[in-house]
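ok trying this again, last paste got cut off
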Amino acid sequence: MRRARTDAASGHGLDEAIRRGKAYRKAGADVVFVELKTSPTVLEDMKRITSEIDAPCLVNIDGGGKLGGLTVPAIEELGFRIAIFPGLERYAAGFAIREAMVALKRDGNTRAVRDRMLTMQEYNDALKLAEVEDWEERYLK
């Protein structure tokens, strides 16, 4: 899948960003991402992007602001086919790490948070460690 991104909206305006998005699609992009971080009219701009660019469009929902409260159905209603939430993992992990470290400092152990921690097996499964080890066995010998 070929994804194309433009940050032109913040420096050159939405019309230029849409022009570039259309050009990316014409050049073969499967998905177009127009970054709108600094737009004061972001919701209206999002509607224009999806209605004027004849391609599946991607939106970046990175946390707070006007976009942070959008639900997946609302994002779909705006016309977006793909939404990424890069802040979700980062902020959730940071919160959990802080909570665990506070408990460790306070109690001298991790008992208070252990029920919210992955087991070693769950961690390895999340990393797909068995697949990595199989890959190493096949290709690194």
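PB: full thing came through this time. The chain is about 55% helix and 10% strand.
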